[in-house]
Amino acid sequence: MDFLTFMSVFLLLISTSCYGLSENHHGDEEGGLLVVAPAKQQKEFDYFLLALLWPGTLCQGTNHCCSANACCRSNATSMFTIHGLWVNYNDGTWPACCNNGSNFDIKKITPLLGGLQIYWPSLSCNLESTCDGGKGLFWAHEWEKHGTCATPVIWDEYTYFLTTLNIYFKYNITKILIEEGYIPSNSEKYPLGGIVSAIQNAVRATPLLVCSDGAVQELRLCFCKNFEPQDCPNNVTPEEACPRYVSLPEYVPRKV
Ligand code: 5GP
């Protein structure tokens, strides 16, 4: 799909209401479980979730470096990076690996690679598991596991990555937080409620934060199928839940 065609589809979807597409379920209606099944049997998802990573927290666990690991970059960036665009069911489960025929092909996203390397980098040297049991790039993992389940809104790899970048840029969470005084710091702690309110005010929907040892590790934004923001359900596990005061550690490049 070329860019103009994509934008037409995107604008068409924007013009529908938040729940305008959600009655279009098909296939297996049993739901309730994490289903890994061929696309034919896959129940249609209910909403999108954009998962963002905070490198300042995740890179603290870096033990060795390689060129593929953005934690090892010398130009320190204190910004949320993309984890993935996921699709979820309202009951708290999600589909995964919906089309094993849609193996990741880096050639299909050549025009996007510059942006992906900056804003959707791997934060590890390890290859990730792919749906066929192999190992591949972080992007391959995200497309095969999550992107292939985004039909009928997203049908192809290029649109999956372009759509994700577009939403990421539209809701610039790092900028929103910095403008409200939530500056990356290795000494400050910030009220979780203040961070959530800042995002609610800017995005008009409630995000979900995931922490590790009191530090923000992941921030999730939820969207209807027409990409209008919607509240995220608060379904993190107790181990991932953030305390009342959280830190936003500064990104320290690892030279190990
Ligand atoms: P990934 O496999 O994309 O790197 O990360 C997804 C991880 O997040 C998995 O371990 C999955 O079990 C977990 N996860 C936690 N909450 C959600 C959610 O709301 N949706 C999806 N799709 N995965 C989630």
TrEMBL record:
Keywords: Disulfide bond, Endonuclease, Hydrolase, Lyase, Nuclease, Signal. Residues 1-20 form the signal peptide. InterPro entries: Ribonuclease_T2_eukaryotic (IPR033697), RNase_T2-like (IPR001568), RNase_T2-like_sf (IPR036430), RNase_T2_His_AS_2 (IPR033130). GO terms for molecular function: hydrolase activity; ribonuclease T2 activity; RNA binding. One of its GO terms (biological process) is RNA catabolic process. The active site is at H83, E142, H146. The keyword Nucleotide-binding does not apply. One of its GO terms (cellular component) is extracellular region. It comes from the Eukaryota. Pfam families: Ribonuclease_T2. Belongs to the RNase T2 family. This is Uncharacterized protein. It comes from Aquilegia coerulea.
